[in-house]
Every structure is written in C-alpha cells, then in structure tokens.
Design goal:
The complex is a heterotrimer.
Chain A: H1 19-37, H2 44-72, E1 75-81, E2 84-90, H3 92-120, H4 129-145, H5 149-168, H6 173-204, H7 209-215, H8 220-236, H9 246-252, H10 255-280, H11 285-308, H12 312-334, H13 339-374, H14 391-404, H15 410-425, H16 428-452, H17 467-482, H18 488-494
Antiparallel strand pairs in A: 1-2
Chain B: H1 5-15, H2 17-23, H3 29-55, E1 61-67, E2 70-75, H4 78-101, H5 108-127, H6 131-149, H7 155-186, H8 195-198, H9 205-222, H10 231-234, H11 240-248, H12 251-267, H13 269-274, H14 277-298, H15 302-322, H16 326-357, H17 368-371, H18 373-387, H19 393-407, H20 412-437, H21 461-479, H22 487-499
Antiparallel strand pairs in B: 1-2
Chain C: H1 3-22, H2 26-46, H3 50-72, H4 74-79, H5 96-118, H6 126-144, H7 148-170, H8 175-221
Helix pairs in contact in C: 1-2, 1-6, 2-3, 2-7, 3-8, 5-6, 6-7, 7-8
The chains are: A mainly alpha, B mainly alpha, C mainly alpha.
Protein name (chain B): Monovalent cation/H+ antiporter subunit D family protein
Keywords (chain B): Membrane, Transmembrane, Transmembrane helix
Organism (chain B): Billgrantia kenyensis
Chain lengths: ~500, ~500, ~220
C-alpha cells in the first residue's frame, strides 16, 4: 500500500528539477504579499493585473508538474541545505490535493474583498488576511509534498500558526479568546508530534519516510511514537474526542477564514496521519479499529451537536466534526485490511476528503452570505428566507446535498465507496455509523430548510449580497455536487503511474 | 451507443429548465408558463420518438463511468418507456393544471423550479439502466419533492414535510445499503441481465433473499406499502397538483416501478419465484390493498380518502407482479399506467372542488354535479375506473389480475380482488351519489363553503381541461385497449420480453 | 565532563522550571523562566551543542522573556504601588486534590515514554533525565493551571524537555536532522509564545475595558 504514496522514487537533487515545485510553493506567498500591499478593495486594477499574472504562473507550474507526473510517474526531489536534506515528492494524490488546495484558497481569497468591504467595514486586521492565506497555502502544499518528517513538521507548524493568525484577525474579544484556546491546543499537538518524531529519529536515525518504512520494526518504540504522532495530529484534526475547540473558533472567525479552515487545515493533519500509519504501522488492525470507532463516535456526536445548534455557523462547524468522522472510518479501512478493501477505501477516503472540502467551503461561504443578507446568525432567524429564494440558500442546499451524501454529489460517491469497503471488509458497525450519520446530517440540514420555508414569518429586510460572494459560494457548492458524477477524473489522478492501488 | 442523445435530451428538457426558472424573476409569469409548457410538450414528443424507435428495434444507450465498476447508465427499454410515457403525459397535464391552480399565489418561481426538477428525476428513474442510476434519481426525487410538500409553509405542511423526509430518506438509505451489498456481490447489474444473479447458484440464495428484502424495504416506503405508508396521508397538505403528482406518477409510482424493476430486471421473475419471494409480495400486497381500502372508508375528507385509496391501488401493481405468469405481469404493468391516469383525474377534481367551491369534506359535495358538471363527470369516470367497472381502464387491470391469479394457481387472490372492489365501491359510490343525486346549494339548499368564480366555465379553464383530458385518456385506455401503443399493448410487449428467454 | 556537573545541571534545570511553574506571582515566575532558559543554554553548551546554546540564549531566554514581560505589561507593574499587585497574581489557589488528579495524565505519558526510551540503546545522560523531568513537570503544570500565561510557560518547559530528549537520542548519528528539528521547534515555540503573549495583553486590555463598561453601566443605572 505504501507504493500508493509514491515514496519509493529516485530522488533528484538537481536544483533545476525542483524549480517547478518551488514555483508552486512560492506563488501563493507572493500573491498574498501583493494582495496585502495593493489591497484589492481599494486598488483593485493594480492588484488584479499582478495577481492574475502570478496566478497564471502558478497554475502553469502546476500544470507542467501534472504533465510530468502523468507521463513519467511520481517525481521526487532532494533539497539540500548544507548537511540537511529535505525529501519532497509528488504523485497523483499530491497533485489532487494541491489542486484542491488551490481551488479552495482561491475561492476563499476572491470572496474576501467584497466580504471585507461590505460585512467587516473597517474593523480587524484586514491587511493580514491575504499574506496569511498565502502562508497557509504554501504550508499545506509543503505537507502534501513532504517525503520526510522534518518537512512535515515545518509544514504542520507553519500551517498551525497561520491558521491561528487567521482566526485572530477580527480582533474581537470572542475571536481572541477562541484563538488563544486554539493556539494552546495547536502548540500542544505539535509538541506531541515532535516527541514522536524524536523517538523515531532516535530509533532508526533517519527522517525520510521511505527509509523509515523499510527500517522501522514493530516494538514499543514504534508504538509509542506512532501513538504520540497520532494524538498530536488527531488533536489538530479535531477528531473526536479532541474536537471541542472547533466550533467556538469558527463562530467568531471571518467567513472566508472559516471556509478555509474547515475545508483544508483539519485535512492537513488527517493526511499526515494516514501517511504515517501506512508507512509505519500498515498492519495495526486493532489500533485502526480504535481510530475507526472514534470516527464513528465523531459522526454521531458531531451530528447530534449540529442538530442541536442554535446558531447557523455552529451547525456548519459541528458538521465538520461529523464529516471528519467519515474520514476516520475510511482511515480504519485502510490499515490491516486486505488489498482489495484497502484499494476501495483509499479512493473513498480521498474522494470524501475532496468532496467535503469543496462542500464545506461552499457551505461556509453560503452561510456567511445568508447571515449577511438577513442579518440573522440564528437558525430560527432564517424563517421565511426561501420566499426570496436567495441564491445563497440554493448554494447552501447544494453543498448540503454533498454533506448528507445524497446523489449525485461527491459525498454520495465517496459514501458509496466507503460502504463498499466496509461491507467487503465485514466491518458491520461501520455501516451503522454511516447510516446514522446520513440521517443525522439530513436532520440538521433540513432543520435549517424547515425554517426557511416558514410562510407566516415576519418579513426580513434583506441586504443585497455582492455578486462575487454569491458566485464563489455557488461555484464551490456546484463543484462538490458535480464531483460525484465525474469522480473518475480525480480518481484517475490517484491511479497515475507510481500511485495506482 | 446508438442515438445516446435521445434519452439525454429527454432528461435535459426538464433539467435545464430548472436553472432558467430559478433565474427568472418571480413576476415573469408569461415566460415561465411558456417555458414550462414548451418543455413538457417537447418531452412528450421525445418520448414518443423513443417509443416509435423502440418498436422499430432501435436501442438507445448512454453510459459513463462514475468510479471503477460503477456506471451511470441510461438504457431505454419498453418498461422504462412505459413509465416515461406516463410521466411525460401526465406532466403536461399537471403543468397546465398547476399554472391555473397557483395563479396569484406566492412563491411560484420556487414551486415550478422544483416541479421541473421532480419531472427530471422521474424521467431519470424511468430511463435508468442499472440500480446505481436508479438510486441516483430516486434520491433526487426525494429532495425535489420536499419543497413541494412544504410549499404552503404553515406548521402542518412543515410537519408533513419532516415526516415525509423521515420516511423517504430512511427508505433511500436502506435501499442504498441493499444496492451496495448487491454490488459487492456481483458488481454492476444492468437491468435485464437477469442471469447474473441466477447463475450464482443455490449457495447465494440466502443472501440474495436478505438483499431482496432490504431493497424491498427501501422501495416499499415510497410505494407506501403497509406498514411503511405513514407519510402519504400526511403529505396531503401539499397543493393539489403536488398531491396529484405524488400519487399518480412521481413518488408512489417510483417505488412501485422500482419493485417492478427489482423483480423483473434484477432478480428475474424465475429467481424471485424460486426464492419464494413472490408469495411474500402477494401477502404484503393483499394486506396493503385491504388495509388501504378500509382506512379510506373511514375518511370524512375527500383528499385523505383518495390518499388511502392510492395506498390500496398501488398495491394492485405489486399483486400483479407477485402472480407468477404472463397475465399477472401484464396486469401489474398495465395498472401502473391506468392507476396513474385515473388517480390524477380524481385529484384534479378534488382540487377543483376545493378551489372553486371551497369543498374539503365529502358531506359538502351534495349536488356539486349540477354546479360543476364537467369536473363531476371526470370524477365519476375516475371513480368508476377505480372500482373496476367497464369500460374504464381499471376494468382491464382487474380483469388481467383475475386471469393472472388463475394462471398462477392463486385463486385466493380473486377473493381479495372482489373484496377490495366491493370496498372501492363502498367508498366511491357514496361520493358519486352525493354529487349527482343529493340536493345541495345549487338546488337552493345551504351554501358552498367558499364559492369563487374562477372562470367563464364552471371554473378556470386551466383547471378543467387537464381533468377532462386525463378522464378521457382513462376511458380510452379501457375502450381502445386492443390498439397498438395502448397501455395494454405496451405491457404485453414488456411481458413478452420478460417471459421469452 | 564530570558526571557530578551533569547531575547538577539537570537538577538546576528541573528546579528552576519548578520554580517558574509554581510561583503564583507572575512576574517572578517569568523571571524564573528566564533563569531556566539560561540553565538550558548552559546544558547545551556542556554537551557540546554550541549553536543550540546560543540560539536558546537568544530565542529562549532573551526574546521569549521579553515577550512574556510584555504580556505582563511590566512597565506598569514597576510603577504600580506594592498593594495593587493582584493583577500580576494567579488568583486560582492550588489544592492538593486537584494537583494529584492532574498528575495522572502526566505520569501516563512519562511511563509510556520511559518504556519507549528503555528500548532504545544508550545510557541515560543529563539530557535524557532532565528532559523527562521537564516533560512530566510541564505536562502536569499545563493540565493544572488555568491562567493563560502560566500555561504558556508550561508549554515552553515541555518543549525544552522534548528538545533535550531529541538531541540525546540523536547523539552523533544524524545531527543535522536533529538540529533542523530543534531549530524549527525553537522558532515555533518563540512564535507561539509571542502570539500568545500579544493575545494575553490584548485580552487583558479588552477584558479590563469590559469590566469598566459594566461598572459604568451599573453606576449610571443606580
């Protein structure tokens, strides 16, 4: 299964070979800097032109990288900094995740100018939004590309700090308090990660995943280090029961930041966890069962909390906990099951990750629009909202189709694959978790819609939502919906040479 | 892939209308009406072309891969076309009716948008070529009917919507489990590849029985088989065109159609018989038929009486299927069409009484035949058809059911048939008696509850003509049962396909 | 390097960390923390990691200390009359029961870690023993304290413990990788502390304003 990660590739230490990947990493940073310098709200012509140029450059680099991978299989680079060597690699999966990151970040960044102008006004530290988004994108890309634990650690830390920074931007009391909590948890999580890495380094004297996969032997050292690594990562991924920090953080953050966080940041930690387990303990079935059970509990508990939530944003935030549970269920089907099950679960897990990212980002943006246009942050406040049939409600609905996992959405196809894997592996409790999760998610989504269809409510005074805010919410939601029909395309990437299950 | 565009275009006629309707302003009444009618007419035309082509021996297929081993497949066969024909025809009528019914009421844009989505799902169900595609549109149907059920937006409608969702989403989930499990066992089953399951051998019979029951459970919810029928009477709060649509074609029929597909095209009638599942189906159908009729008898309001009558009538289809032998099959299939025609007529008429005279209770109908002769004639035709009197279409269904029972050596089914016909007569004849023979407000006795004069005729023309048309069709389907392209002819065509290996 | 000095250094680190984590006077605790960082730098020096020692001195002692004092608003403290020190004091008293309860998770981690370390070859040096002590102490304090600044201190202590263990395990096999990890870790710890310190200061100010607002509102109503 480790070959699906594309780690066993000849590393090239030519600087010229790594130019493309450096470009992919640097462009988001540059774009963030440019946007901070020439703020899009005020000087949009200048920043628009420069940003478009940079964007074209970045996408071109990504495209060329994709071509290389699809033609020649996975690529790997050795970045040498004095005696220190960093291992980077890219295969189909990396490509898929890179693409996903770019799409979601771009949508959230492009949503931001209108949002800041109309909703936030002058408050908060607005200039920092884009640079931090750039850092976040780069750090995520680093995580997807990393082939050794040091790079992973750097990426993880950078991502955590950028995420905390983004959460703090509104500058209000609640945002600061939630941000502080998040900061402490993120720091503790990374300490656990570092301790695990220290044990691995002490045990086998190297940090590159390919080498560790060959050398690492089962024993207390491996188990303790994997336990520490997993604990740190699952804390950052808001996996049940380490999820309590998630909702307060979202309820006070800016909408594009929430979207970015729920869609990508928690996924970064999840990806690292999957990768480490596949590399280090591919046969630890019992432990994977435990993780799966946690996932099942997350599905249920997150669903119940989302259902009981009073505020609209809390519904969306708790649903993230529940949806991450699906990912953990998929995770447990990868470890210690047969190759046929793992192959299906592999595709199901990544499809679920992509579908959830798009749907959740779209849903957060749509929620932001609903709150903006009605001025109500409570679910009950939406009473009668469907009379105007605002586009945002439609975007919310489309995104929620994917969250519930109804066809033809990406969430549905992913659930199909996960069900398939669970049935084939004979993990019957997982079926129950998937079933109850579906019903619960339907319950919390339709609770929102139920209010929106109330006819005898007092008329709300609507504010017009700027078109760009509507547009990007809709685009992301539609992408999550259509992903279900064209699921074969992203999955073809997974099966690119050097990554085929 | 010959002429793949035709089924796709049929789907697209209603699917593409949806975004257009949503983007039109609420006040654009003319454009919306033109669009709806145009699309409905075009669809009838396209289906007619496919029927013609099928008789010429053409085959239409369209497929693409969703994920490995799972295909989206449109495949046109006689059974599917029968259903598509029924739905496109009744849709034309219902669109006309809905335009009249909803005149000057709020939220028409929302209504017609989801209405078209609902048509699209039904067409998708009809043309689906495998269980995955069927499931996809089956769930889409649930989603698109919810806004129609809660359209009125008062507490009762919202509660009915919630109940509806609880039943149908759970049913859909159960169906999903069955379909995935079947997929794990044998892979993608295209409708008509009956030998795939039959070839599995006796070892698999236990599992196949269980899967059949699971899928029957999922489909039975929408088909309103007792005891899964609870949502149907409550969904009566929806506007009359929606009730007509839910009962005659869309939801209930989708369930019944799914059972037909399951028995004939997935398991094959031979295997189902071998597994002893036909007897089970017969028992369920009998219970539902008698229970629905008895409950209908107890209703004091017109629409709930029709609702329970639907529960009972739809199970004739299931009863027909469960009678092993060509006559039983013909009976089941032909009733799929006949029941749709007759029931839709009855609902139009009930809607007309409610709109024009404000009548909801049966005892308010005294003498309405004089005030609204055309509507009452249509109602009479529909009711007599339901009882099974010649020459209305219902007679053909019951005649073939009786022959099927003799052929399958299940004479007790005839007793059920007679009993239920007597019950039908018991709950419809009093209504007819009141309509025509009792003295009411139009004879100067008392007053109509809420009389309005909606048109130059007895009520608005938009409301009259659809009812007259469907009543005429029900009459013709009985009178001209022997001519080509009649429902009976189509059903015989399908049956011939089924029983000749 | 005589073993006596090793033991002394390890002891000094743990003792200073204990003082920093248990002092309820926050300014004094921060001062203890700076002293602790210096002792860590000395330990790095004593085992031959000169660069790490300098970095620890710069990032750990100087900058982290500066941010911590900034969080406390040290200038105001200096000019405040002795009687108004309550602001710079953690008001939550320490009870034995709580302290013991919070010890359990720390012990669990320590035992787990000890099992793993036991399986790795190598003699327990000052780094390993000191590191274990610091991790246990820090975890306990982190679980125990509610005050944000004290949790930040605890986080820094745990981090230092991990760095020590890391370098002890690496030995001279892959020093570059070890250095890379520790330097990243130090930078992250500094950034985290800086962010936390700024936040604490902001929160204090906002909180103070809110209390003032409430008082104002109450007075006007009366």
């Amino acid at each position: 299964m480790i070959e699906w990660l594309g780690l066993h590739t000849a590393y090239s230490n030519q600087f010229s070979d790594s130019l493309l990947v450096l470009l992919v990493l640097m462009v988001p940073l540059l774009m963030g800097g440019v946007a901070a310098f020439w703020r899009p709200q005020r000087r949009w012509p200048v920043s628009f032109v420069i940003l478009m140029a940079l964007l074209t450059l970045g996408l071109l680099a990504l495209f060329l990288l994709a071509r290389q991978i699809l033609e020649h299989g996975s690529q790997a680079w050795l970045i040498e900094l004095g005696p220190l060597a960093l291992h980077w690699r890219a295969n189909g999966l990396t490509l898929l995740l890179l693409l996903l990151t770019q799409i979601v970040t771009l949508a959230s960044a492009a949503y931001a100018p209108a949002y800041l102008k109309s909703e936030v006004g002058r408050g908060g530290a607005q200039a920092w939004l884009w640079p931090l988004q750039g850092v976040l994108t780069t750090s995520l890309s680093l995580i997807w590309l990393a082939g050794d634990l040091l790079t992973l650690y750097i990426g993880l830390e950078l991502m955590g700090l950028a995420a905390v920074g983004l959460m703090l931007l509104p500058g209000r009391m609640e945002a600061l308090a939630a941000g502080m909590r998040y900061l402490l948890l993120a720091l503790v999580g990374s300490l656990a990660f570092l301790l695990g890495v220290a044990l691995l380094l002490g045990g086998w004297g190297r940090l590159d995943l390919a080498g560790l996969a060959m050398l690492a032997e089962p024993g207390p050292v491996l188990w303790v280090s994997v336990a520490l690594l997993s604990a740190g990562l699952l804390l950052k991924a808001a996996a049940f029961p380490l999820h309590a920090w998630l909702a307060p953080v979202h309820s006070s953050a800016w909408t594009p930041v929430s979207a970015l966080h729920a869609a990508l940041v928690v996924k970064g930690s999840f990806f690292i966890a999957v990768q480490l387990w596949v590399v280090l303990v591919p046969e630890a079935k019992a432990a994977a069962w435990l993780v799966g059970a946690m996932g099942g509990a997350a599905v249920l508990w997150g669903g119940v909390l989302a259902w009981r939530s009073v505020k609209l944003k809390d519904v969306v935030a708790w649903s993230t906990v529940s949806q991450l549970g699906y990912l953990l269920l998929g995770f447990s089907l990868l470890i210690g099951t047969g190759p046929t099950v793992a192959a299906v679960a592999w595709e199901g897990t990544w499809l679920q990750l992509a579908a959830h990212s798009l749907a959740k980002a779209g849903m957060f943006l749509a929620t932001g629009n609903l709150i903006f246009s009605t001025g109500e942050s409570h679910v009950k406040g939406l009473a009668g909202a469907s009379r105007r049939m605002p586009l945002s409600l439609l975007s919310f609905g489309i995104a929620s189709i994917s969250l519930i996992g109804l066809p033809p959405s990406g969430g549905f196809t992913a659930k199909w694959l996960l069900l398939h894997a669970a049935l084939e592996a004979g993990y019957l409790p997982w079926l129950a978790a998937l079933a109850l999760g579906t019903l619960l998610s339907a319950a919390y989504v339709f609770r929102v819609f139920r209010y929106s269809f109330v006819e005898d409510a007092e008329p709300l005074d609507y504010r017009r939502v700027p078109w760009s805010m509507e547009f990007f919410a809709m685009i992301l939601a539609l992408a999550s919906l259509l992903l279900g029909l064209v699921a074969e395309w992203p999955l073809l990437l997974l099966r690119a040479p050097g990554g085929e299950p | 892939m010959s002429q793949a565009w035709l089924p796709l275009a049929t789907l697209a006629t209603s699917l593409l209308v949806v975004p257009v309707i949503f983007s039109l302003p609420e006040g654009a009444w003319r454009v919306r009406t033109a669009l709806n009618l145009g699309a409905a007419l075009l669809k009838v035309l396209l289906v007619a072309m496919m029927v013609w082509g099928l008789y010429q021996g053409q085959s239409y297929q369209f497929s693409f891969t969703i994920v490995r081993g799972v295909n989206f497949l449109f495949q046109v066969d006689a059974l599917g076309l029968m259903f598509a024909g029924l739905s496109s025809l009744l849709w034309l009528a219902t669109t006309v009716y809905a335009i009249g019914y909803l005149e000057d009421s709020p939220n028409r844009k929302r209504f017609f948008g989801f209405f078209s989505l609902c048509v699209a799902s039904t067409v998708g169900i009809a043309l689906a070529g495998n269980l995955f595609t069927f499931l996809l549109f089956y769930e889409l149907l649930t989603l698109s009917t919810y806004p129609l059920v809660v359209h009125r937006g008062h507490a009762k409608a919202l509660d009915a919507g919630t109940t509806y969702l609880r039943y149908t989403l759970t049913g859909g989930l159960v169906l999903l489990f069955g379909v995935v499990a079947l997929h794990v066992m044998v892979g993608d089953v295209t409708f008509g590849e009956r030998e795939m399951l039959a070839d599995l051998g006796p070892d698999a019979h236990g599992l196949l029985t269980v899967l059949f029951l699971i899928m029957l459970l999922g489909l039975g919810v929408k088909a309103a088989l007792v005891p899964l029928h609870g949502w149907l009477p409550r969904a009566m709060v929806a506007p009359a065109p929606v009730s007509a649509l839910l009962h005659a074609v869309a939801v209930v029929k989708a369930g019944a159609f799914g059972i037909v597909r399951l028995v004939y095209d997935v398991y094959g009638i031979g295997l189902t018989y071998q597994l002893g599942l036909l007897t089970l189906l017969a028992v369920i159908a009998t219970v539902t038929i008698l229970y629905g009729s008895v409950r209908a008898l107890a209703q004091q309001e017109l629409k709930p009486r029709l609702a329970f009558s639907t529960i009972s009538q739809v199970s004739y289809i299931v009863l027909g299927i469960s009678l092993f032998g060509p006559f039983g099959t013909v009976a089941g299939l032909v009733h799929l069409m006949h029941q749709g025609l007759m029931k839709v007529t009855l609902f139009y008429c009930a809607g007309n009484y409610a709109e024009e005279l404000g009548i909801h209770r049966i005892d308010e109908l005294n003498g309405a035949g004089r005030r609204m002769p055309l509507t009452s004639i249509a109602f009479t035709v529909g009711a007599l058809g339901m009882i099974g009197l010649p020459p209305v279409a219902g007679f053909i269904s019951k005649w073939y059911l009786g022959m099927g029972a003799v052929q399958a050596n299940m004479q007790w089914a005839i007793v059920v048939l007679v009993a239920s016909s007597l019950l039908n007569a018991a709950y419809f004849l009093p209504v007819l008696y009141r309509l025509w023979f009792l003295r009411g407000p139009s004879h100067g006795v008392g007053e109509w509850p809420d009389e309005r004069h909606l048109g130059r005729l007895e009520t608005s023309g938009w409301l009259i003509w659809p009812a007259m048309a469907t009543a005429l069709f029900s009459l013709m389907a009985g009178l001209l049962a022997g001519v080509p392209f009649s429902p009976l002819d189509l059903a015989t065509f399908v049956t011939a396909e089924e029983y000749t290996p | 390097m005589p073993p006596f000095l090793d033991a002394l250094l390890a002891l000094a680190m743990v003792a200073l960390a204990t003082l920093a984590l248990l002092d309820r006077q926050l300014v004094r605790a921060c001062a203890w923390f700076v002293a602790f960082a210096v002792s860590v730098a000395l330990t790095w020096w004593s085992v031959g990691f000169i660069w790490l020692a300098l970095l620890e001195l710069l990032l750990g002692a100087l900058l982290t200390g500066a941010f911590l004092f900034h969080a406390l608003d040290i200038r105001q403290w200096a000019s405040a009359p002795r009687g108004r020190l309550a602001r710079w004091r953690d008001p939550v008293p320490l009870t034995w029961q709580r302290a013991l309860m919070r010890l359990l998770p720390a012990l669990a981690v320590l035992i787990m870690l000890a099992i793993a370390l036991d399986n790795l070859a190598g003699t327990p040096g000052p780094l390993l023993v000191g590191g274990m002590g610091l991790i246990g102490l820090g975890l306990w304090a982190f679980a125990l304290h509610r005050h944000l600044l004290r949790r930040l201190l605890a986080f820094n202590v745990i981090g230092t413990g991990i760095f020590l263990i890391l370098m002890a395990l690496v030995g001279d096999r892959n020093t570059a990788a070890g250095h890379g990890l520790v330097v990243t870790g130090l930078l992250v710890a500094l950034l985290g502390t800086a962010l936390g310190a700024l936040l604490i200061r902001r929160l204090n100010r906002l909180d103070g304003r809110r209390i003032l607002d409430v008082a104002e509102a109450g007075r006007s109503r009366a």
